[in-house]
Amino acid sequence: MRKGYDSDWFRAAIMAQGTTPCIPPRKNRKVQYHYDKELYRQRHKIENVFGRIKD
Fold first, then answer.
1. What number of helices (H) and strands (E) belong to the chain?
2. What is the DSSP code (8-state) at residue 47?
3. Residue 21 near residue 35 (C-beta atoms within 8 A)
4. Were 14 and a residue from 21, 27, 38, 53 both cysteine, which residue would form a disulfide, CB within 3.0 to 4.6 Å?
5. pLDDT tens digits, residue range 17-42?
6. CA dist 8 to 14, 28, 32, Å?
7. Which domain of life is it from (predicted)?
C-alpha cells in the first residue's frame, strides 16, 4: 500500500482541488481517516497496467 502519501498537507491539497482523497491512513495516525477500499484496489490495478505499458 502507498501509505507514504498520507500526510495532512497532501490531503488538504487534494481536497482544495475538489477531490476526495482515497489514501489509506498510516498505522500511527491519531485520526484514522476512512477511505474506499474497493476504489483503492481498482486504482492500484490501473497503476499496474500503466507500469507494464511503460516497461
1. 2, 0
2. H
3. yes
4. 21
5. 999 888 888 888 888 888 999 998 99
6. 10, 13, 12
7. Bacteria
